[in-house]
Amino acid sequence: MRDFEDLVAEASAVSVSGWDFSWLDGRATEERPSWGYSGLLAERLARARVALDVQTGGGELLAGVPRLAPVTVATEGWPPNLERARAVLGARGVTVVADRDEPPLPFRDGVFDLVVSRHPVRTWWGEIARVLAPGGTYLSQEVGPASVFELVEFFLGPQPDEVRNGRHPDRTRREAEAAGLEIVDLRMERLRTEFYDIGAVVYFLRKVIWMVPGFTVAEYRATLRRLHDLIEAEGRFLAHTTRILVEARKPSTVDS
Hints:
The chain is an alpha/beta fold. Helices cover 35% and strands 25% of the residues.
């Protein structure tokens, strides 16, 4: 059995660029939502003419879609992911635009008939509505309220209700409708996530940087050691992710 120092050193050294979590195979598991976002994405992109993927990460999900829209554009704000996305998506004819993930999106009004995003850090609904063409669709899988908070609170302690519930689907509905969009589908599921060694936790927190802001092994070594001992005793650390599926439509222009 590998010891604490070995596991932490390995997870600290591996690259966390892109949005591919295959390094965690055999070390952590996450239950998938029943709706199958990848399949929904492929279906919508096959029908679209001009599409935008917001916060594409390393471009891995978009690269795996069998048929893209004739014009497909993506944005990404984190430099390591931007470089990776351009390498991955360039061969598919996708233009990847550097963007700060803050308004405004660098596109004209009403240019896209489809906008998609998986796990956006934040959804800027006004910008989504602005760049959608009349009758256009926004499809996204979002992180829901208190996602993996068993792990977050192990490191940070109990979080206030406004933090735990900041990504509730009721808020998603309010903000989408305030931007002038119509909700077509809105669902949430709570799913099991299990970490089987402390290296998996270190990798996850290095990659998903907003879970424990400012996370470093040096800062949290004592907490990591306690969690390692818990995993060794119980065989896993159990948490729960929450995922929201949202599909919204921009109303068509009414003929005069």
